[in-house]
Amino acid sequence: MRNIFSFLLAAFTAFSLNAQTVSLTVPDKLVNPGEWFTIGIKASDFDNIASMQYAIIWNPNIIEFQSVTGLNVNMPDFTAINSFNSAFATEGRLRVSWYWFDPMTNSGVSLDDNSTLFNLNFKAVGQMGTNTMLEIADDTTVDPPFVVEIGNFDQVVSVDIDNGKVTISGVNASKETLTEDFTLFQNSPNPFSEITYISFNLNTGVDAKLTIFDNSGKAVFTQNKKFPAGISRIPISRDMLSNAGSYFYTLETARATATRQLIMQ
User: Fold this and answer.
1) Domain boundary among 121, 149, 168
2) pTM higher than 0.90 for the full model?
3) Count of beta carbons in the 10 Å neighbourhood of residue 14
């Protein structure tokens, strides 16, 4: 399969690049220590695509690869066995390769924007507060390198990559989180049903951003302004969040960041 794929890529490079750019996105993710979680790799402007190859790279001391699931059913011949090489997953590398085109029309596959190509399943094995990039990139550990390339039937196209970060957070056993700029307290009450309060103590008046994320890493609340020195207390009501469950809130200044967990029942 590698030889056929290389042949197709060689054929593609005989044609100049056009204006098409395929976007690949790896979302950020906040997880608890020991949590099993899933990250979907998404694509946009995936129009008439006949081939793709790239590596996915992470720190195996922070997250541990488990499996690939949820392969896009609109991509013929895209299978976990044939399209993914997990031989080096324990080293934090997974290679992805796929090609298909309709020989009758010389056309590839087109997907809706923000379509999920596949899901990666991991377990968080690092300590609370650690993080790792989860990157679509070249695998330069082999010769020749296993490079990022996506192509139509007759040309290579540009690729725009938005990589993500997995951060291991969770409930801290202490009642506060200290940084050089502020103290971030655990929300109270926690868990809560109707309303809770997020409090922090700023050493000086400073621009700060408070963000609440759901478990997928999506921001569901943001307050960004200059807060005064001293204690600020932000009310968070049930209708400000989407569903019951675990959320994470982060306070950021220019010099410091801290994250804690809140639970809505």
Assistant:
1) 168
2) no
3) 9
